[in-house]
Amino acid sequence: MDIPEPYSVFVHDYLTTLRSGTEFTTPEDVAEAVWRAVTERDSLHAATCFRPSTG
């Protein structure tokens, strides 16, 4: 990745944080959100579609 020098420390730290994150989305989470979006009228509210995975 070609990152300009003034941003290299920030980008390196940010990518390290992303790689060590504890929250993640599984394919099952995505499938459930899509299914709910097309079958449940109330599922379009972001709080019900997007929540941290517990797996």
Note down, in words, how this protein is organized.
This protein is mainly alpha-helical and 55 residues long. It has a domain at 25-55. The protein has helices spanning 8-19, 27-39, 46-49.
Largest beta sheet, briefly?
none
- Total count of strands: 0
Number of helices: 3
Name the quaternary structure: single chain
Helix content: 40-55%
Overall spatial form: elongated
Distance between the termini: 31 Å
- What portion of residues belong to β-strands? under 5%
Low-confidence stretches: none
Order of helices and strands: HHH
SS class: mainly alpha
| Average pLDDT score | 82
Radius of gyration: 17 Å
Topology, please?
Elements: H1 8-19, H2 27-39, H3 46-49
List keywords for this structure.
55 residues; 3 helices; 53% helix
Brief account:
By secondary structure, this protein is mostly helical. Helix content is 53%, strand content 0%. It has helices at residues 8-19, 27-39, 46-49.
